[in-house]
From TrEMBL:
Annotated organism of origin: Haloquadratum walsbyi J07HQW2
Lipid bilayer topology: Multi-pass membrane protein
Keyword rRNA processing: no
GO MF entries: sodium:proton antiporter activity
Gene Ontology cellular component annotations, sorted alphabetically: plasma membrane
Statement: the UniProt record of this protein carries the keyword Transmembrane helix: yes
Compartments (UniProt record): Cell membrane
Pfam families: MrpF_PhaF
PANTHER family: NA(+)/H(+) ANTIPORTER SUBUNIT F1, NA(+)_H(+) ANTIPORTER SUBUNIT F
The name this protein goes by in its record: Multisubunit Na+/H+ antiporter, MnhF subunit
Top-level division of the source organism's lineage: Archaea
Length: 108
């Protein structure tokens, strides 16, 4: 069963979004998720290790932003806690991978 966005708007199906700003937040989150999917190509096929590290870091940052948008749109402050923890893990992961590549000699 396929439902298009115009069919949802025309039939006035209640999506649980009480404010137009919530719909904008959800739309932005969907766009960011699509960009993370596109970045996964760079993670897999990046010609250099630096390309892969930057792509993984970008996906992690996108995940943090999506969690923050969903926290605001769905009025779930618990998502912000998860976003903060994920941001810290993303930072530590970037440092660890950078240190590993420097020790291996793959820099520049």
């Amino acid at each position: 069963m396929s439902i298009s966005l115009t069919a949802i708007i025309q039939s006035n199906i209640d999506l649980g979004l009480n404010d137009p700003i919530e719909a904008v937040f959800i739309g932005a989150a969907v766009i960011l998720i699509l960009s993370a999917v596109i970045l996964s190509y760079r993670i897999v096929s990046g010609p250099t290790m630096q390309d892969r590290v930057i792509a993984v870091n970008s996906v992690g940052t996108t995940t943090v932003v999506v969690l923050a948008l969903l926290a605001a749109a769905l009025d779930r402050p618990g998502f912000l806690d998860i976003a903060l923890v994920y941001a810290m893990l993303n930072f530590l992961m970037s440092i660890a991978i950078s240190k590993f590549t420097v020790e291996r000699g793959d820099v520049l």
